[in-house]
Amino acid sequence: SGPSGQGTDGFARRRRQTGGMGLGDRLRGGRGGLDPTAVVGRRIIAWLLDNLFTAILVLLIHRGDAAFTTDDGGLAINPNVIWTVTILMVLNQVGLTMATGFSLGKAVTGLRVVRRSDGGLPGFRGAAGRTLPWVVPIPFVPIIETGLLLASKGHRRLGDRLGRTLVVDRGWIGQPIRVPGLDPETEPGPS
Q1: Exposed site from 43, 119, 130, 135, fewest CB < 10 Å?
Q2: Distance of CA 135 to the CA centre of its chain
């Protein structure tokens, strides 16, 4: 007999209160219709980690020659640093993401990039499309991308739209993703 004297424990009672869904079901959208793309905090942390990893590698590769003093006393960045950052970004954001569904930061935070159509790996088009807004030199891209990330259905920034991708918890990879408000709701028909 459980604490209520009715032969049930707290776990079973909570399971009844949530409609029979466990925590994993609720976090993955389950029958409650939660948004599988509601991982914005982890996306921001992943982005910060990706940049931190890049900075560490650049400092290790270039050690004391990342910047130099110009003839007129100004400070300039070594052009090789720009190339190194570009190569590392393409390897991490395009190469690794197209092959595995994650960048280094997303791997640490448990996120995956998936094709919106079927939840599969994004491939080259998806990974390159996601990266494109960050390499085009438009001044307000970070502000636009952050605004879309926070305010759009599916938390899809411009890169996600170009690459036709979603960012979800790693438990969703390989499964069709239904985003409330983005995908039409389908009612089960008669059996």
Answers
A1: 135
A2: 18
**For residues 104 and 93, what is the distance between their CA atoms, to the nearest angstrom?**
9
The residues, ordered by sequence, that sit 6+ positions from 36 with a Cβ below 8 Å of its Cβ are 28, 29, 166, 168, 169, 172, 177, 178, 179
Helix ranges (DSSP H) in the chain? 10-17, 23-27, 40-62, 79-89, 97-100, 104-109, 123-135, 141-151, 158-163
Tokens 């879309």 sit at which residue? 148
123-140 pLDDT, tens digit per residue, is 999 999 999 998 888 888
Cβ neighbours for 167, distance < 8 A, ≥ 6 positions apart: 37, 39, 43, 106, 111, 112, 113, 114, 155, 160
Task: Give the residue from 36, 56, 54 showing the smallest Cα distance to 174.
Answer: 36
185 vs 46, 106, 114, 164, 188, CA distance in Å? 30, 29, 20, 20, 10
Closest CA to 165 of 116, 102, 103: 116
Distances (CA, A) of 38 to 50, 54, 58, 131: 20, 26, 32, 20
Sign, Cα dihedral of 158, 160, 164, 166: negative
Amino acid at 112: R
| pTM for the whole structure | 0.76
Chain centroid offset of residue 30 CA: 20
**Residue 144, both tokens:** 């636009």
Two tokens at 52? 């931190």
